[in-house]
């Protein structure tokens, strides 16, 4: 099991003051705007970006960056095919916009920089300048789409396993998935095939100070207990 290393969340008072500033910034930057409801569908309340950036001694760094409306962020990075068991790292802090740049400041005051490029963010160097390289440093904005997997619920634990990758995601925020699963009449904990409109992000874990990869449902759900990931291949 991967050991997760993380940074402590900043004080709530700091988050609040930053959030007021960033709400006005969001209004002037359509690519980073968020909304809650549109035509009966629930849309993300944060902006999430994902991509695999270059790595000197591994197959790449799978990077997820979540920018919340209150001016806080969570960054998760997994070093793919790394030799060390400690290959997943998390960082939290606050973010602001300066022109076309998104600036992240972690709890130690260390800054990292991204350039806005349409609907994507491009990682910059430690000085906030473009990285001179032929490799791809772009993180693409995550948008809701149809996800296929198997969902199970037991003892307040909700789990979604994606068919394509076999990767597991916490699904505890999705009351409609829980209700749909209950309507299937299966024994608790039994995986049931489901297609759901949603997206992947990061959420605080039930274990204090840790984070989980999570799935967020935003639209239609279709359970089918006669199918499975294996039968859909």
Q: What would you note in describing this structure?
A:
This protein has 233 residues and is mainly β. The chain folds into two domains: 47-141, Lipocalin; 145-223, Beta Barrel (OB fold (Dihydrolipoamide Acetyltransferase, E2P)), CATH 2.40.50.540. The protein contains two helices and 16 strands. The chain has an eight-stranded antiparallel β-barrel. A five-stranded antiparallel β-sheet has the order 14-13-12-15-16, covered by helices on one side. Strands 2-3 form a two-stranded antiparallel ribbon. Strand 15 (192-204) and strand 16 form a beta hairpin. The two termini are 27 Å apart. InterPro entries: Cu-R_lipoprotein_NlpE, NlpE_C, NlpE_C_sf. Residues 142-230 form the NlpE C-terminal OB domain. Keywords: Signal.
């Amino acid at each position: 099991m991967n050991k997760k290393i993380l940074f402590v969340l900043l004080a709530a008072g700091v988050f609040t003051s930053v959030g007021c500033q960033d709400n006005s910034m969001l209004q002037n930057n359509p690519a980073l705007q968020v909304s809650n409801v549109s035509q009966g569908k629930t849309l993300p309340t944060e902006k999430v970006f994902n991509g695999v950036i270059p790595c000197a001694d591994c197959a790449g760094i799978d990077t997820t960056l979540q920018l919340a409306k209150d001016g806080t962020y969570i960054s998760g990075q997994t070093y793919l095919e790394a030799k060390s068991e400690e290959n997943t790292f998390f960082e939290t802090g606050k973010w602001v916009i300066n022109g076309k740049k998104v600036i992240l400041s972690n709890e130690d005051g260390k800054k990292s920089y991204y350039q806005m490029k349409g609907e994507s963010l491009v990682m910059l160097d430690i000085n906030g300048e473009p990285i001179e390289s032929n490799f791809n440093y772009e993180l693409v904005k995550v948008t809701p789409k149809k996800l296929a997997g198997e969902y199970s619920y037991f003892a307040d634990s909700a789990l979604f396993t994606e068919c394509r990758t076999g990767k597991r995601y916490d699904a505890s925020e999705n009351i409609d998935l829980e209700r749909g699963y209950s309507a299937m009449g299966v024994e608790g904990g039994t995986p049931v095939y489901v297609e759901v409109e949603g997206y992947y992000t990061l959420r605080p874990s039930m274990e204090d100070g840790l984070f989980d990869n999570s799935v967020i449902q935003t639209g239609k759900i279709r359970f089918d207990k006669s199918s499975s990931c294996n039968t859909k291949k």
